[in-house]
Amino acid sequence: MIKKINDLLSGITATVIGGIFLVISFILSRTEISLPVDPAWITVIISGVPLLYLAVWRIIYNPGISKISSALLITVAMIAAIIIGDLFAAGEVAFIMAIGAILEDMTTNRAKKGLSKLINLAPTEGRRISDGKEEMVKAADIKKGDVIRILPGETIPADGKVISGETSVDQSVMTGESLPVDKSKGDEVYSGTINRFGAIDISVTRSGQDSSLQRLIKLVEEAENRKAPMARTADRAASWLVPAALIIAIAAGIITKDIVRAVTVLVVFCPCALVLATPTAIMAAIGQATKHGVIVKSGEALEKMGKVNTVTFDKTGTLTYGRLEVSDIISFDQSVNEEGILILAASAESKSEHPLGKAIVSCANERGLLICDCDDFSMQAGKGIKASVNGRNVICGNEQFLSENGIKTAAKKQKAECYTMQGKALVYVAESGKCIGAVTLADKIRPETAKVIAEIKSMGADSVLLTGDNKRTAEYFAEKSGITEVYSELLPENKQQIIIKLQSENRTVCMIGDGVNDAPALKTADVGVAMGSMGSDIAVEAADIALMSDDITKIPYLKRLSDATVGTIKASITLSMCINLVAVVLSVAGILNPTTGALVHNAGSCFVILIAALLYDRKFDKTSKKQ
After folding, report:
1. Which of 39, 446, 602, 614 is most buried as measured by Cβ atoms within 10 A of its Cβ?
2. What is the mean pLDDT of residues 54-83?
3. Are residues 388 and 512 in the same domain?
């Protein structure tokens, strides 16, 4: 009951009413009109009761020195103003504090706009297909394995795979991509994204709390509930400033023998701007990041990002796309060109389930080549396949597999050596007992990688590669990326150990990864960043920050955002302390009274809030056009 009354009094409507009565009191004080009761009393009750409630609540429930809060100081100042008969000053102190609280709420709500957008996008229902019939059901009733139909313009209610139809999906809320992404049979779609064009049927893979959108909402809630270390520092400073204010006020009152000056000191000494500096800046920055497809799970991570001097990268799926693609086609026989080699290899591999075989078939399909049917298909795990293509006996596999089938590769090996030096997988292609060519496959490096590494270096941080790949492959990718510090052939625990080793060298480490094997390192690093779009759930949960678009140009962006956030916090704290210091001197000198002192003090709080709000729309897009 008490809390409900408190919430009602601290609302915008009640505060506006309090402001009206305060204005009436101000006008009446400058006329000969008098009322039995000063209208300022209404303001004191409306705006002062929530302040008193907060001060008492903190005394009861806060531990240790934190019981002494800024709300307590303002309450003391308000009561002191009432005692000396300055009801207008008492009402003004309480009213301006209420205005400051509302401004803070408005600023942080604006800063959370990008976060709350995710929650508002949660679909409420979906069109389930059962026995050939459509029925509208609640989103909460959709289960894994259900078939859902999504029409153009509808929000997708669950994660799933397209089983029929083609369309384009607006995934901007999840990935920050500006253009819709084409989807056809076999492609994944995510809850909360919008179907733009064609109708599609999907088989649900994750629904309810397991869906992509709900996981994002969970990250949002964590971001809103966790508090940064600098915020705790500000709270502690506020707790110590209260007794300091009381001592100075008492001393000023005794020395000057003027209780009004003592009350004015209490009014201007309140450290509200100091307390507001960190949370408003952090929330504005988190909202700014969310607009660009970056989910920051805590203010602590955002602050630490600015102190990072070492960025460690996983390779696969982070610096590279995480999928094998045909890189080169080599012909060892002048009678067969590269296209012929690819057609023969793709035809033989058409029934293969191996990733290398699938990549070769995919490449042939992308080039529009005719893939022939194969017979007598057989596969030997870890070695290769045999098949008959139009009566031609074809073998595709590694050197050992061909040798076991009486096919010599020694003369070809030297020509292929330069490709294996680049960390590429090599599949030999043989026909009728003769090695006629080879296909190389590689995980394609992201084109922006080298630029990102160079920018990280220009910002004073080192880049380190941590990978489970062999040394030769790791060094090749490191050279292409511009990374000089490389650790290869690492198991998950090895990556974690490297992070600990780097930290022992007084380095502040940020780990970028995407897989389950990166989770221990992500959790151990000072800041863990997961490639959220294609990364595993475990990696995203272990990380402090998730990049929903797998765009590594967001790493320099995050560092700039962190630097700006910390800079804003420091500037706000400095500004608030300077205003308080000047106001205290003016109060002791008698230049300010409780009324004017309250105006000066709370103007500082408003400045701090407005400075923080500027972070939300600030531009940090030096490297990525998507930002």
Report:
1. 602
2. 80
3. no
Residues 103 and 242 in one domain: yes
Neighbours of 243 (CB within 10 A): 12
Q: Taking each helix axis as running N to C, give the angle between helix 594-613 and helix 554-588, from 0 to 180 degrees, rounded to the nearest 10.
A: 170
- Domain CATH for 499: 3.40.50.1000
Where helices occur in 257-337 by DSSP H, the ranges are: 259-268, 272-291, 299-305
Please name the residues in contact with 389: beta carbons below 8 A apart, sequence gap of 6 or more: 344, 347, 348, 372, 373, 374
Percentage above 90 pLDDT, the chain? 24
pLDDT confidence bin for 216, thresholds 50/70/90? low
Residue-number span of the structural domain to which 384 is assigned: 322-444
CB–CB of 299/286 below 8 Å? yes
Residue 344 maps to which CATH number? 3.40.1110.10
- Residue 29 CB neighbours (<10 A): 14
Strand partners, 593: none
Name every residue whose Cβ is closer than 8 Å to that of residue 56 and which is 6 or more positions away in sequence. Answer: none
Which residues does 105 contact at the CB level (< 8 Å), separation at least 6?
A: none
Beta strands in 494-560 (DSSP E): 509-513, 527-531, 545-547
On whether both 459 and 597 belong to a single domain, the answer is no
Express each pLDDT in 455-467 by its tens digit. 999 999 999 999 8
Alpha carbons within 13 A on the beta-carbon side of 316? 19
Cβ count within 10 A of residue 72:
22
Q: Decide if 130 is inside a domain.
A: no
Do 327 and 424 contact (CB within 8 A), yes or no?
yes
Residue 211 lies in a domain: no
**pTM for the whole thing?**
0.65
CB 148 within 8 A of CB 158: yes
Under 8 Å CB-to-CB from 76, ≥6 apart: which residues? 246, 266
- Considering the candidates 86, 170, 314, 514, report the single residue annotated as catalytic: 314
433/326 same-domain check: yes
**Interatomic CA distance for residues 186 and 594, integer angstroms:** 70
What residues contact 138, with CB distance under 8 A and at least 6 apart? 124, 125
**Neighbouring residues of 348: CB distance < 8 A, sequence distance ≥ 6:** 374, 377, 385, 386, 387, 389, 394, 395, 396, 429
Q: How far is CA 86 from the centre of its chain?
A: 49
| 509 and 532 together in one domain | yes
Question: Do 480 and 530 have their domain in common?
Answer: yes
Q: Does residue 228 carry a pLDDT above 60? A: no
- The yes-or-no answer on residue 314 being catalytic is yes
Maximal C-alpha separation, the chain = 116
Q: Angle at Cα 362 formed by Cα 360 and Cα 368, nearest 5°? A: 110
Question: How many Å apart are CA 100 and CA 47, to the nearest integer?
Answer: 11
Whole-angstrom distance, CA of residue 4 vs CA of residue 21: 22
For residue 71, give both structure tokens.
Answer: 């709300």
Q: Is residue 458 part of a domain?
A: yes
Strands (E), 421-544: 425-431, 434-445, 462-466, 485-487, 509-513, 527-531
Separation CA 494–CA 252 (nearest Å): 63
Mean per-residue pLDDT over the chain, rounded? 82
